C-alpha cells in the first residue's frame, strides 16, 4: 500500500500562539503531503514499495542507486514529519522523572540539555533538524542520549539512532510567523513540546 499522511493529532490552531494555524496548515497539507507523494513515486515498482518507511530509511544503501537520493530526501521528509507532529501538543511543561534522570545523566540536567539542543537547532546551517536520540553503545553498559543535527531531510534512524524528539528548522516551519527569526521560533517551540510522548519513546528506546 502507498504511504498516506497520518492524521494530525490536533487542530491547526491547537499550538497557537507559539505555532500559528496557517503555518501548521501549509506545513502539514502541502509540505508533508508532497514528501509523502514523492516518496511513493520514488519507491513505486521497487521491492521496497510495501515496506515500512522506517525499514526503508535504515537500509538506504540497499536501494537501487537511481532511487536512493529521492528516497533519502522525500522518504526522510515523510518520516521526519510523521514524528514531528507527535512531538508537539502535550500538556506537561517538563519531562517526567525517568526522562529527566536520563537528561541529567547525559547532559548534566534539563536546563543544560535545553541549552545544547537550542545550540544545535540554531547552529544547523540552512535547512535541517535538531534531534534528541538514543545512541546505541555496543561497548557500554547502557545506551547514551545524544543531540545531533541532520541536514535537509536526513533522519538519524539511517545512522542507527532512535529519535526521541526533534525540531524542524526548515524555514517553512516558522517563516510565516517568525520570518528570519529562528531563535524566536526555537524559544517559542519549547512551549508546545509533548513531553509525555518523548518520555514514552525514551522508555521504549531503552
Keywords, separated by commas or semicolons:
206 residues; mainly alpha; Helix Hairpins; minor pseudopilin epsh fold; three-stranded antiparallel sheet; 8 helices; 11% strand
Describe this structure in words.
The protein is mainly alpha-helical. It folds into 2 domains: 21-86, Helix Hairpins (Orthogonal Bundle), CATH 1.10.287; 97-205, minor pseudopilin epsh fold (3-Layer(bab) Sandwich). It has 8 helices and 3 strands. The protein has helices at residues 21-43, 53-58, 65-86, 97-107, 110-123, 175-178, 182-189, 195-205, and strands at 128-135, 144-151, 162-168. A 3-stranded antiparallel β-sheet has the order 2-1-3, with helices on both faces. The protein is globular, with a radius of gyration of 17 Å.
The whole-angstrom Rg is 17 Å
Return the CATH class of the largest domain: Alpha Beta
Low-confidence stretches: none
Number of strands: 3
- Tell me, rounded to a whole number, the average pLDDT: 94
- Please trace the helix and strand order, writing H or E for each element: HHHHHEEEHHH
What proportion of the residues is helical, as a percent range?
Answer: 40-55%
Strand content: 5-15%
Q: Assign the CATH superfamily of the largest domain.
A: Iron/manganese superoxide dismutase, C-terminal domain
Q: How many distinct domains?
A: 2
Q: How would you describe the shape?
A: globular
CATH topology of the largest domain: minor pseudopilin epsh fold
CATH architecture of the largest domain: 3-Layer(bab) Sandwich
Strands of the widest sheet, in order across it, are: 2-1-3
Distance, first to last CA:
31 Å
How many helices?
8
Biggest beta sheet attributes = 3 strands, antiparallel
Q: By helix and strand content, what is the structural category?
A: mainly alpha
Amino acid at each position: 500500500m502507498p504511504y498516506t499522511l497520518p492524521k494530525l493529532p490536533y487542530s491547526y490552531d491547537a499550538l497557537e500562539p507559539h505555532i500559528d494555524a496557517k503555518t501548521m496548515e501549509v506545513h502539514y497539507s502541502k509540505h508533508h503531503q508532497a514528501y509523502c507523494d514523492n516518496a511513493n513515486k520514488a519507491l513505486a515498482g521497487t521491492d521496497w514499495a510495501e515496506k515500512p518507511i522506517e525499514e526503508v530509511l535504515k537500509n538506504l544503501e540497499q536501494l537501487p542507486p537511481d532511487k536512493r537520493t529521492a528516497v533519502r530526501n522525500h522518504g526522510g521528509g515523510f518520516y521526519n514529519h510523521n514524528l514531528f507532529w507527535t512531538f508537539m501538543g502535550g500538556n506537561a511543561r517538563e519531562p517526567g522523572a525517568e526522562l529527566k534522570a536520563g537528561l541529567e545523566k547525559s547532559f548534566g540536567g534539563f536546563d543544560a540539555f535545553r541549552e545544547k539542543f537550542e545550540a544545535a537547532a540554531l547552529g544547523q546551517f540552512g535547512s535541517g533538524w535538531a534531534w534528541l536520540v538514543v545512541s546505541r553503545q555496543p561497548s557500554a553498559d547502557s545506551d547514551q542520549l545524544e543531540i545531533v543535527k541532520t541536514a535537509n531531510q536526513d533522519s538519524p534512524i539511517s545512522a542507527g539512532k532512535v529519535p526521541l524528539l526533534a525540531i524542524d528548522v526548515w524555514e517553512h516551519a516558522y517563516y510565516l510567523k517568525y520570518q528570519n527569526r529562528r531563535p524566536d521560533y526555537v524559544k517559542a517551540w519549547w512551549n508546545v513540546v509533548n513531553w509525555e510522548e518523548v518520555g514514552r519513546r525514551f522508555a521504549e528506546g531503552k
